[in-house]
Amino acid sequence: MEKLKFESIESKSENNIYDKEKFSPEKAKEYVDDLTSKFKDFYSSIGYNEEPSVQISSGIDPTVRFIGSHISVFKHYLIGDNVINPGVFMEQPCIRTRNADKLLDDSFSPQWGSYFLSIGTLASPDRLKEACNEAFDFFERKLGIARENLLIRINSADEDLMETCRERCDNDNLEIDTQKPEYYRHKIGEKGITGRNFNIALRNPNGAGFADVGNIIVLENSEKKLGIETALGTSVILKQLYGLDHVQDCNPVIGLEKIKDQMMRRKFEDSIITSTILLSEGLRPFGGSARNRLLKKYMNSLIYFKDKSGLDMHELQTIISEFEKKEIVDSDKSISNYMIEYIKALEGDKK
Description:
By secondary structure, the protein is of the alpha+beta class.
């Protein structure tokens, strides 16, 4: 297969090799929506079917507390060994709760937000080369990213992945065997199904080094391949292209800017975002399930950060209300009221 040649049509600024400026918090959702729209348009145009998203707290995948990847929604194709040709694609809101137990640790600085939007595909198992090339085309053709700014982190033991990537990529685009073996392996919580992957990284906007933005995974059992997954994160892609300070700048909580302690601000922001998203789905911080308890952790942390930051109740409600209005489609604006009443009740119990 002839390698495609792409030249950057944008001049490279001193601050960002992609010649893009950071977007304002008020415009963040527009940029996320634009990236998601480009992803959907691309995969729809090459024949993939769109899979509808599910609620994060849906319980559709009993192996996880919350949906943390679109693979949870795609699992029924793998388990039934019936991935359609050429494949399916989707956008899926996700929450990963690795920050939950550390929010009140003043020494903990979160590198990631709990909430993010995942975009991904699942292609039929006989389309490994096609699925890889489609992902590369998305970055190079649809997003206009020059080949030199893409890096593939891959394990030489995965000969089928190596062969596919060598046909498309130059040696300078390949980083081989630099990570621990587990970096190139995936588990999806289903007995007998494992994954082998390579990661896609974009050059840092200052030109020095790369950061992972997604991966391509061969999902298989002991007998055969079951499907080819492409998993991408909207926030990590946008962070690279626009030189954002943090992935949470893709769904910022406006009004926390006056908090000088950036570590605390990010954790406060994470608590507001995660609590608001889960409450909007109807989940409540009561009951004995793991999902209820995790939501309660995020909501209880709001009191801690409110007191540490010096925000009064009215300021906090305004901040939460504005975030709700911006991020939650068809919101009835009751979430902020519920959160404030919850905080008041907890504070009252402590008196």
